[in-house]
Amino acid sequence: MVETVRSMFPHVPTAAIHYDLQKTGSVEQTCDNILRDGSLPMPPAPRPPTPPTTASSSSSSAAGSSVTNGNLVQRFKLQEAAEKNYVPEEPSKVWGDSAEKRQEVFKSRKEFMVLQARKRMLEKEAEKAQAAAKEVATNMES
Fold first, then answer.
1. Which one, of 117, 115, 104, 121, lies nearest residue 77 by Cα?
2. Residues of the chain under the 50 pLDDT cut
3. pTM check: above 0.70
4. Could you give the CA distance from residue 111 to residue 77 in angstroms, rounded to a whole number?
5. From CA 114, how far away is CA 70, in angstroms rounded?
6. Res 124: pLDDT
7. 73, 114 in Cβ contact below 8 A?
8. How far apart are the first and last CA of the chain?
9. Most exposed of 23, 39, 46, 67 (fewest Cβ within 10 Å)?
10. pLDDT for residue 51
């Protein structure tokens, strides 16, 4: 079936044809998709299998993985700003003249968004804690 479609549309990658045929199960439908869209979407990249976690993992390996999979504040090294609850002003949305300037602006925008999201999360948690405290207080009075 793949070769049939491939012979009609040699510009479409074989992997994309195979993926679409798996989804549709029909040569006709795959051909219609190519004619309608001009091509086919590539299949998603295969995910490497994750190793099973065991209870006997050493604490050193757990600590090592938490650094790579840690929260965004740790990943972007924003602990100091997070401790002070500092959220910088929004960086400019100007396209830099050089690659270094663009990289710097991009980094500052990421840092801004992380700190801003953290601030919103803390505000929501505080609201939930206040609501829970009020609920407990009203239940105690009853």
1. 115
2. 55-68
3. no
4. 9
5. 13
6. 92
7. yes
8. 72
9. 46
10. 61
